[in-house]
Amino acid sequence: MSGKGKTVLVTGAGGYVGSHCVLELLIQDYNIVAVDNFVNCVQEHNSYPESLCRVEEITGKTLSFHEADLTDKATLVPLFEKYNIDCVVHFAALKAVGESCRLPLMYYSNNVTGSANLMDLMMEYGVKKIVFSSSATVYGDPQYLPVDEMHPVGACTNPYGKTKYFMEEIMKDVCNANKDWGTMILRYFNPVGAHPSGKIGEDPQGIPNNLLPFVAQVAVGRRDKLTVYGNDYDTEDGTGVRDYIHIMDLAKGHALAINELLKPEQQGVSIYNLGTGKGSSVLQVIEAFEKASGKKIPFEFAARRPGDVSSCYAKCELAKENLNFKSNYSLLDMCKDMWTWQSQNPSGYTPGPSSK
Questions:
Q1: What is annotated about its quaternary structure and interactions (predicted)?
Q2: SS3 content of the chain, % helix, strand, coil (to 5)
Q3: 43-85 pLDDT, tens per residue?
Q4: Could you say which of 48, 160, 188, 272 is catalytic?
Q5: Active site residue 329
Q6: What's the pTM value of the predicted model, to 2 decimals?
Q7: Which DSSP string corresponds to 56-115?
Q8: What is the set of domains in the chain, with CATH numbers?
């Protein structure tokens, strides 16, 4: 399906997932209004996020970018005044599990208040379609595996997961109160990898909180070694198991969701897992990355982090059945593309002494 003539507002567009999804939507001819507050992306000289400058370069297409902060509703009003928005894709959120345990109030304020502000303006301006970037963290410590969409939610093990759960509940309530609204909640597992060109990828600001960016930074010499948190989990090798999904598979999943949501008959709330359906341990990820990069990844074990679960991987049949979603990339593919990005951009989007 072509998005020609349809305008999509993307919040958190300069971030890792947002930028790759914007790329996919531009390829499908959607008009993109992109919003970011630069908390987790690098600003270019023209006031665009560097990631979105590169997205335009890759696609040969243009987008409209506006700096705005969802916690400051006044910065969003001009966008709803100026553009005839058909659908919102909501990525903007703080997202680090460990940080959320240290700074819970910051997470509740940013993630929950920001989402409420966004939906308040959608209500005011008659925008009735939203795709929400949720997370497998809403499932908490899984009661069974693989995790399907009917798994109980809300018993979250960290404040980040709780903010995603609260945001889901707010959206369900809004849809229940407004029968002409349509919401798709996408619970995705662990996005990794990069666009195959190596021009855009994951560039966490500060010390990476997620596994793959840290591994990549060790491989490129930005970090001395990796710390593996916990080797006493009830898993095959004692390290945590996660469902890693290639960022381009995830981007296509969002495009499929928008295509479906924009059908006039699509109302109410639909919830889908986006993953591969397979779990990989930390040690398996390290092994795959070493194979992809040809680099040795030194690591040491440390105690478990608060809020981390032992194993979590998805059952994705519902997305396959209703959205025609399918993951195409292997763990090795993810590591290869991550390495292409990191080796071409040793300092991420920020020019460094060793940048090419």
A1: Homodimer.
A2: 40, 20, 45
A3: 776 688 999 999 999 999 999 999 999 999 999 999 999 999 9
A4: 160
A5: no
A6: 0.94
A7: HHHHT---EEEE--TTSGGGTHHHHHH---SEEEE------HHHHHH-HHHHIIIIIIHH
A8: 7-344 (3.40.50.720)
